[in-house]
Specification:
Blueprint lengths: L1 E15 L2 E15 L2 E7 L9 H16 L4 H7 L4 H18 L3 H4 L8 E2 L2 E3 L4 H10 L5 E5 L6 H11 L4 E5 L9 H10 L2 E5 L19 E3 L9 H4 L5 E4 L1 H4 L2 H13 L3 E4 L6 H11 L4 E2 L17 E2 L2 E2 L9
Parallel strand pairs: 5-6, 6-7, 7-8, 8-9, 9-10, 10-11, 11-12
Antiparallel strand pairs: 1-2, 2-3, 4-14, 13-14
Length: 324
C-alpha cells in the first residue's frame, strides 16, 4: 500500500467563514494486489485536527492492519472516522471491484447509478462579489453559497437571490452564526426563499436550534460524522450532510445514510474541495439524495485525467478507469 500527496490549484480563491485556500491538497492511497490496484482519495481537514502528516501516518498504520488481513468492517471498528480511513476504505472497494471484474455499485447491491444534478458553490465575499458570481451561474438549478460572517449576511443572501432569481438556494454558514443573530438570519433566509441552511451554529453549541422555528430546513454538517451522532441531532436538524472524509469512507457513509433516512432526516451528500477521484464513491451514496453537492472538481483550475463528466448541472457516474 502506498500514499501520495497531490496538489491541485483552485480557480481563484475559495473562501468560507473559517478562512481561504488557493489549492486543494489531497492524499491518494493505492492498494496493490498482484496485477490489480485500487485507489481512494481524501482531503486532510484542519477543522477536524487533521494534517497531511497525521493522515499519512494513520494510513501507514492501516497498511500494517490490512497486510494482516483486516477487513473494511474491522478497520471501521479499530480506526477513527476521518480522511485516512476514507482513502483506505475507498481504495479497498475499488480493488475488490477490479479483482472481481465487477462494479462497486454491484458489490453494494445498487442499481446502476444515474447522473445527478449537483450544486454550484459560490465562495464567501462581499455581497457585490457574490452577486456577480451568482449571476454567472444563474442558469444552474441549484446554487450553494457561503455565509457566516458577523456582519453582512442578510445583504449577501439578498444579493445572491436577486442575481439568481430562479435557482434553488442552499446557504452554508460553516458554524459562523451565533445565538444572537440566528433568528434574524433565519427570517432573511425565509424571506428570500432559501431551501436549506447548513450548520448555522458551531458543533457542540447547537442546542439553540431546538428552540427556534425552522422556517427553513437546517442541515447538520460539522455536527455529523457517523451514525453515532444521529440521535443527538434529532430535534435540532432536519437534514444531514454526509461527506466521506467525515464518515471514514463509503462503508460507513452507506450505513449512515440508511439510518438517517430511517430516523426521518433528509439527505445531502457533500464533499471537501477535491478531485473527481474523491467524488466518485460519493456519487453512489448520493443516489436518491434530496441535495447533492459534489462540485469539488468544478472549483479547481484542473481536475485529474480521467475525471468525472460534468455536463451542465449534471455529474455523471465514474467510469472504471477512474474508480469503482
Amino acid at each position: 500500500m502506498s500514499v501520495e500527496v497531490e496538489r491541485f490549484p483552485i480557480a481563484g480563491t475559495f473562501r468560507i467563514a473559517r478562512g481561504a485556500k488557493t489549492e486543494a491538497v489531497v492524499l491518494v492511497c493505492t492498494i496493490q494486489d498482484g496485477d490489480f490496484a485500487g485507489r481512494g482519495e481524501c482531503v486532510p481537514y484542519p477543522r477536524y485536527g487533521e494534517t497531511v502528516e497525521s493522515v499519512t501516518a494513520q494510513i501507514s498504520e492501516m497498511a500494517d492492519a490490512i497486510a494482516g488481513g483486516m477487513t473494511r468492517e474491522e478497520l471501521a471498528e479499530r480506526f477513527r472516522a476521518g480522511a485516512a480511513r476514507n482513502a483506505v476504505d475507498c481504495a479497498l472497494w475499488d480493488l475488490e471491484a477490479k479483482m472481481q471484474g465487477r462494479r462497486v455499485f454491484q458489490l453494494i447491491g445498487q442499481n446502476a447509478p444515474q447522473p445527478l444534478v449537483t450544486t454550484q458553490t459560490i465562495s464567501l465575499g462581499t455581497p457585490e462579489e457574490m452577486a456577480r458570481e451568482a449571476g454567472r451561474h444563474a442558469s444552474r438549478p441549484v446554487l450553494k453559497f457561503k455565509v457566516g460572517m458577523p456582519e453582512g449576511d442578510a445583504e449577501r443572501i439578498e444579493a445572491v437571490r436577486r442575481a439568481a432569481p430562479n435557482s434553488q438556494l442552499i446557504l452554508d454558514a460553516n458554524e459562523g452564526w451565533t445565538e444572537h443573530n440566528l433568528e434574524e438570519n433565519l427570517r432573511i433566509a425565509t424571506e428570500f426563499g432559501v431551501a436549506l441552511i447548513e450548520q448555522p451554529l458551531p458543533a457542540g453549541r447547537d442546542d439553540g436550534l431546538a428552540e427556534v422555528s425552522h422556517t427553513v430546513p437546517i442541515c447538520a454538517d460539522e455536527s455529523l460524522h457517523t451514525r453515532k451522532d444521529l440521535v443527538q441531532l434529532r430535534g435540532r436538524y432536519d437534514a444531514v450532510n454526509i461527506k466521506l472524509d467525515k464518515t471514514g469512507g463509503l462503508t460507513e457513509a452507506l450505513l449512515l445514510k440508511a439510518e438517517a433516512e430511517r430516523l426521518g432526516f433528509s439527505i445531502m451528500v457533500g464533499c471537501m474541495v477535491g478531485t473527481s477521484l474523491a467524488m466518485a464513491p460519493a456519487i453512489l451514496v448520493a443516489q436518491g439524495a434530496q441535495f447533492v453537492d459534489l462540485d469539488g472538481p468544478l472549483l479547481l483550475a484542473r481536475d485529474r485525467n480521467p475525471g468525472l463528466l460534468y455536463e451542465g448541472a449534471s455529474v455523471h457516474p465514474p467510469e472504471p478507469e477512474l474508480w469503482g
